Amino acid sequence: QRLTIYLSEEEGCGIMLSFRRWRCSCSRVAAIASIVPLVLVVHLFFFPVVPSFDYFGTRQVQHSCVPINGWVEGGRDNVLRNPQPLLDLDTLFPADSHGAVVYHGAPWKADIGRWLSACDSIVTAVKVSEKIGGKSCKNDCSGQGICNRELGQCRCFHGFSGEGCSQRLQLNCNYPGSKEEPYGRWVASICSASCDTTRAMCFCGEGTKYPHRPVAEACGFKVNLPSEPDGPKLTDWTKADLDNVLTTNSSKPGWCNVDPVAAYAFKVKFKEECYCKYDGLWGRFCEVPVSCTCINQCSGHGLCRGGFCQYDLIPSVLSSIREWPRWLRPAQINVPDNAEVTANLVNLNAVVEKKRPLVYVYDLPPEFNSLLLEGRHNKFECVNRIYGDRNATLWTEQLYGSQMALYESMLASPSRTLDGEEADYFFVPVLDSCIITRANDAPHFSMQSFSWDEGACYAPKEIWNSMMLVHWGNTNSKHNHSTTAYWADNWDQISPERRGKHPCFDPDKDLVIPAWKRPDVNSLSLKLWARPREKRKTLFYFNGNLGPAYESGRPETTYSMGIRQKLAEEFGSSPNKKGKLGRQHAEDVIVTPLRSDNYHEALASSIFCGVVPGDGWSGRIEDSVLQGCIPVVIQDGIYLPYENVLNYDSFAVRIREDEIPMLISILRGINGTEIEFKLTNVKKIWQRFLYCDSILLEAERQKSVFGHVEDWALEFLQLSEDDVFDTLIQVLHYKLHNDPWRRQLPHQKKEFGLP
């Protein structure tokens, strides 16, 4: 028999108990499900010069909410109320003058908007049996890892390995040395002091007053003064500077024995090149221990050690029911009622009502996520936040922070399921942005050839049938090669044996998602996104690197595929190296490389804002929309965030690259009514470019710790429209029922993709 416990929404359990006959269920093969890798491999490609949005035109037209994909067959619970009558969606939800159908305030492409308007909200809940794992791991992972009790496998901490995490690894800080390079060639972990070989990180070490103070990079080596005025200091990686770093003489620039109180009072000298580079330390002298950054901060349970949770992210039978996440409540729990329960761990089944789409999140080996966080040598790398004094949240400018934000939202989402048989999608959380930014971190981390800034272009052919979530939607229709000007990111020479012949971006199956932008409370409180047209005095605005013609400009002619350079040649509002302005410079047009004192204010004072590539993708569309400015997209054949699902004509302007000389005359020719229409729609969709769900998850965590809501959170708590994650779930729901690529999968024969 089994004991059934009904859990309420409250933190406790109880109310109703009943006994039912115990039945074993056999595992069945999952129905067709898409794989969604979190490959924010920020560059992709393929389609016409200006993206074509009529690819849905060849699909079967949907005139009801009855599913047309096969996953509901074979006795599964129906997702929608059945039978569903045929509906004239074209009449019920007509397109507006721009070809859009509005759903939840956003202008969608007509077919998508119609289906969402008719069907997204009438989904009925299905009962999903969530398996709560009870398997044990060898030696309980020896205290050097956590046990995945679903699989019975250890997830070992950084520097440990083996089935039971009993093997200690030797991760050296330095490459092998030579007479010319005693400490080996440069790498971010290079160390002249004490190396922690579990993480390849450099510290002061035993025998010093502060043994756990970092001695990262230039801190431990001789630094030569500039050879000319205003020149940079140069570090000599062949000569250690331990005489200074380890000194106890207050008149010498020390570090490992420097007392913070004395240093703050200017009573002792210290080496300026030394600082708290690693996560978990704060203060000028690393004297304040603070929280490290972990996925969802371990849900408030267990210690975050440098990025790795000493707590299983997947609920298990050892978890207190109070620790179960909200997406597992309310639940009906089936507990075997027999004498062996007290002696052996068992699996539990928690029956939960959920609405589709349902997403199974793979618990990949930690090499793909947690270890990438725990081993990072710069606390700001690949995360969207760190923690400062008193564990206050400090948001980062890291564009790749979207990976972490999306991963955290998915783990906490009601759409998440632990039942792979019921899942509609499988989410693969690879934090490959950590691989990009950590490529030179340490000798053991030799992954430079693994992923680039244009990573989905490089994606191995075996995984290409997955749905790629990316930042760079280059369809290869015009720019059919690597577009980066940075040599290390170039993928042109990768063998077809590895990547196949696939494009970099396929709008039939992939999705461009917004980059992470630091939450700006000031812009939010001032409501810059809602500023009316009469307060926007600048016609067109672009601020950024304009290439080799300008001081400090990127030297490569291929930078920005030449687009920024052409824009500056015509409309540059700041003198270039020759003292010249753009041929068509105008008073109300700003195209400048000079950093603005208040970038967001400048955007919010403009009607149109330029969205052009940098070294591939850039975050300019997010900058524009979040400040209420109409995006002007100039990049042929390259999709922007949501451009294959939202109707861009409702809130943006597209200019072909060969139309750049006519840009301003085109913008001046747009009438006032059309401008107001687009500005109004930007106001309606701006939150879809904001990772509000992730931000509010952090606000909730901080409230549970401090007992009050942080000032920055108060502004975000007032937001109620759909954000990035809501938009993704809506797109997944639509694709689940209408995606032509999904329907064709079983019948296609391609040279790439899994057998």
Automatic annotation (TrEMBL):
Keywords: Disulfide bond, EGF-like domain, Glycosyltransferase, Golgi apparatus, Membrane, Signal-anchor, Transferase, Transmembrane, Transmembrane helix. Signal peptide: none annotated. InterPro entries: EGF (IPR000742), Exostosin (IPR004263), Exostosin_GT47 (IPR040911), LE_dom (IPR002049). PROSITE patterns: EGF_1 (PS00022), EGF_2 (PS01186), EGF_3 (PS50026). Disulfide bonds join 137-147, 156-165. GO terms for cellular component: Golgi membrane. Gene3D superfamilies: Galactose-binding domain-like. Belongs to the glycosyltransferase 47 family. Its main location: Golgi. This is EGF-like domain-containing protein. The chain crosses the membrane at residues 29-50. One of its GO terms (molecular function) is glycosyltransferase activity. It is a single-pass type II membrane protein. Residues 133-166 form the EGF-like domain. Pfam families: EGF_Teneurin (PF23106), Exostosin_GT47 (PF03016). It is found in: Golgi apparatus membrane.
